[in-house]
Amino acid sequence: MLKVGIWLLLSLLSGSGLIIYALQQQYEEQSIDFRILHRDITVKLAQHETILSLLSVTSDPSVIQEKFPQILAWKPLPSAAAPHTLLPAGKGTYWLNDQHFALLIDLNVLLAELPQSHYFRHIRLSWQNAELIELGGRWQPAYWQWDKEVASALQPFELSASRDPDWARLPWLLMLLASLGWAGIIYFVSQYRVQKRQRNIAVLREHFSELTRLNAMGEITTGIVHELNQPLTAILSYNQAALRLLNQQQAHKVPPLLDAAVIQIKRISALLLQFRQKLTHDRVVFQAVNLGEIWSRVTMLLENEIQSGRVNVINRLPATLPPLRAEPLWIEQIFHNILTNAIQAQQHQAASWVAISAVASEQGITLQLKDGGPGLSEQALQQVFMPFFTTRPDGLGLGMALAETLIHRLGGSIKVENIAGQGACFTLWFPFNAQEE
């Protein structure tokens, strides 16, 4: 609509300019014709005065009428007649009197001999506000009107003429071409702007894609650091404990520590495989997952943290809980991140605990993980799942964001709230017929 409005406005402006110019040209032409008409009438009237002054008793009327057909008759006047008078005789005629003679003049014949008299819609000659002759019917207002007094001593007439513009002579074709020209200009300008905008968008998309790749690489790198930090710390702890036991000649206690270190190494391998799948977009094949077994494995992986923090882990998962179809490592990461946060939130408490429970329905399984910590602040409740949000000075803020992402990829949901007199409560829901999203 904006383009149509601009086109109409430009067409109107250009058309108005062309019409005004054409009308001005016609007016100038008609003004010239009026000046010519005024000059010819003035000349004719001056001839009447000259003839009147040259008449004598011996003048031949036929000769005079042959040369001046507008003079219908002439007659001598008595010496007592008023000198230099003009008497209207009706129907466009009048008597022009001198001291000795009078001429009967027909203005109809006079004007008919002048070509310019046919160029106007109306022509009127008046004397002392009395109409002598009017051509073109009854006088009506017209678009243009000219008025000028005839400079004559005996015949001081007022010449008036009017005419309407010749609308057919207006540059309609040029106006149409101008309108089409504006339409073409607007079209090409709009196409140029569209193409320029598309080029700009393409450039911005290219820059955005580059920034997205760089940002993705940064997030992946940060995610790898976050996910590998726990198992690497556990492996270091197990190996240090094994070295102490070997130095204390207690080699029989070393194999369990090495087994635990092997489990952590395998977990690192699985994490790296998962990051590779994210980079290559390989589709994950879901399998039946026992939530109780994965929870037990996560508590074993975090055994050092649980023991050092003296956290009481309460497992209320029903033994009859049906399996889910999911990626086991995803469930392990979800449990691992939530349990790690719960342990860290209760570092300075005398009595710390974490409880997990589950309820199965026809559509899926609802899990609840509660802790005895101080709970989350109002800001944390709103931003806990935002990437890089953390309340710990050494935290990366990716654990809960990754957990939410994995839960959504399983078609589930997660929410968090504070429980009065306890701490935070995370509620997770997983569908039975999960498909990767």
Automatic annotation (TrEMBL):
Coiled coil regions, renumbered to chain: none
Enzyme class: transferase
InterPro entries: HATPase_C_sf (IPR036890), HATPase_dom (IPR003594), His_kinase_dom (IPR005467), HisK_dim/P_dom (IPR003661), HisK_dim/P_sf (IPR036097), Sig_transdc_His_kin-like_C (IPR004358)
SUPFAM superfamilies: ATPase domain of HSP90 chaperone/DNA topoisomerase II/histidine kinase (SSF55874), Homodimeric domain of signal transducing histidine kinase (SSF47384)
Domain (Histidine kinase): residue spans on this chain: 223-434
Keywords from the UniProt entry: ATP-binding, Kinase, Membrane, Nucleotide-binding, Phosphoprotein, Transferase, Transmembrane, Transmembrane helix, Two-component regulatory system
Reactions this protein catalyses: ATP + protein L-histidine = ADP + protein N-phospho-L-histidine
EC number: 2.7.13.3
GO molecular function terms listed in the Swiss-Prot or TrEMBL record: ATP binding; phosphorelay sensor kinase activity
Record-linked Pfam families: HATPase_c (PF02518), HisKA (PF00512)
Transmembrane segments: 170-189
Record protein name field: histidine kinase
Protein species of origin: Serratia oryzae
